[in-house]
Structures are given as C-alpha cells and as structure tokens.
Automatic annotation (TrEMBL):
PANTHER family: DIHYDRODIPICOLINATE SYNTHASE (PTHR12128). The active site is at Y136, K165. Its EC number is 4.3.3.7. The keyword Lyase applies. GO terms for molecular function: 4-hydroxy-tetrahydrodipicolinate synthase activity. It holds the Pfam family DHDPS. The lineage of its organism: Bacteria, Pseudomonadati, Bacteroidota, Flavobacteriia, Flavobacteriales. Belongs to the DapA family. Pyruvate binds at V207. SUPFAM superfamilies: Aldolase (SSF51569). This is 4-hydroxy-tetrahydrodipicolinate synthase. Keywords: Lyase. It is an enzyme of class 4 (lyase).
Amino acid sequence: MKINWKGVMPAVTTKFTAEDTLDLDMFTVNIKAQVDAGVHGIILGGTLGEASTLTNEEKRILIRETVKIVNGKIPVIINVAEQSTVAAKQAAKHAKEDGASGLMMLPPMRYKADSRETVTYFKSVANSTDLPIMIYNNPVDYGIEVTLDMFEELLNECSNIQAVKESTRDISNITRIRNRFGNRLAILSGVDTLALESMLMGADGWVAGLVCAFPAETVAIYALAKSGRTQEAIEIYRWFLPILELDINTKLVQNIKLAEVATGIGTENVREPRLPLIGTEREHVLAIIEKGIKTRPNLPDYKQYLD
C-alpha cells in the first residue's frame, strides 16, 4: 500500500494481560476505535508501544493482527529502533513479510552515531527494502539529530525515505524543512503539545500519543485545522492541552494507559521494568484525566473535512 504521509497516525500502545502476554482482544478494541475515528494510519512499536520490551515475535504478531483488523483501510507502520544495521535490515524484512505498509525509523540505538554513521545506517536499511520510510527525528530523547543536510543526502539517494516525524521541539524547523525541501519531504509533528502549532505552520499531520485514548478529538483537531476552521480546532486543543502534557513525561506510557482505561479502550497493564502509577503521582494523573472527561467537548461533524 502506498502511504500518503498526512493526517493523524496514532503511535499505539501495546496491550498486555495481567499475565504479561499480548492482550489482542483489547488491542483490537483500541485499533477499531482509531479506525472508526478516522485516523490515517497505525504506528506500532514506538516508545508508547513499549517496543524495547517486546520480542521480535511479538512485534511480528502485532503487525499481522493490525493488518487483519484494518483490512486495507489504512496503512500499518512499524517502528524500527535497533542497535545494529543488520538487526534493522532484518526488522524491515520481517515487516514486509508480515504485511506492513511502511517503516518509521530511529537512528541507531545506544551508540551515539555521528552524522556520517547515521546517514550510512539509514541508507543501508532504506536500500534493503522497498517499504516507504518516515525518519523519526528526536534529538531530545535519543541524542542524535538528523539535520537538513543529512536529509538532503538521504532524499537524493533513497526514494523510499519520504517523511519525517519532527520532534526537535523547535517549531521553526517546520518552516526550515518546508523551505528547503518543498513537498519532497512530508512532515508529521511528533510532539502532542506542539501538534496544532506545527500543522498551522505547514506540517502534513500528527504522529499522536493521547489519540490512543481520545481518537475522535485528535482527528477533529487535524480535520478542522486543515479545513481552515482554525478557531474550532483551537478550542478543542485548549481543552486537550492539560491531557496532552501527560505525553511529555517519562511515565508517558503509564499516563496514557490510564487515559485509555478512562475512555474504555485500554487497560493499565504495562511490562516491567515499568510499573503502574501509585500514590500522589497516580492521583495527579487521574485528576487531569477526570477533569478532561467531565469537560469533554461536543465535536462538530469533523469527518466531512477528512480527505
């Protein structure tokens, strides 16, 4: 499936049972809620997906299950976050075999590669597959920035590198990318608390986190913003912001899973070493979520603006 890199693409959580196995029943409930809300793709195995705790076989199961659930309606994308080029190539190969539509790729993990090494890594993996690729550029959390010059080299040599998940936290980088590359590189905001601002500055979409619990509100913001109904989008976004800030936190997985419980499309089971929130930390997060639920806005018919 060709990927149109735009719209809302949830970085979905991985659902676990109390026995620490994949909870495919609740996973299906959540994915169907995302599709029903009008999301434009599903991204598996990111930070929110607790990828570092998943086995390779579990990742493959999640791809195959998601492909079945969405049934060709939207693309299924798997995150590739590996320590070696060999492992990344293998992950890309498995993704293709299991029916994924594309890849989201981080730079090499653990080792802080320099610019030459990072570009070589991306080229090597991209040239090993025909799947379309979105580069995840998050120097804040992962320590390696993919600069515009690096993107220039990658775009000139790898036609399947097509998009960036822009998570530098520098909103002006949207304009720099657009000025440099025009429409050669699609831009999706990767920071929930900068998503609307990014789209108003020209980003094509939003790789979202709290969409896992609030799919309709997230897609509504995108649809309204892109259809010129900016004030309506801002009003929903203002309501959403305190909840969105739960994503900018080291406990984002636990936070968002609590929100999924509140909206009935998830459980709070996490995989160790993560543990469920307790005490005042839990109370604080629940208070934010509960206030959001109580003041949840009535949404306009936003789907009429989706294309």
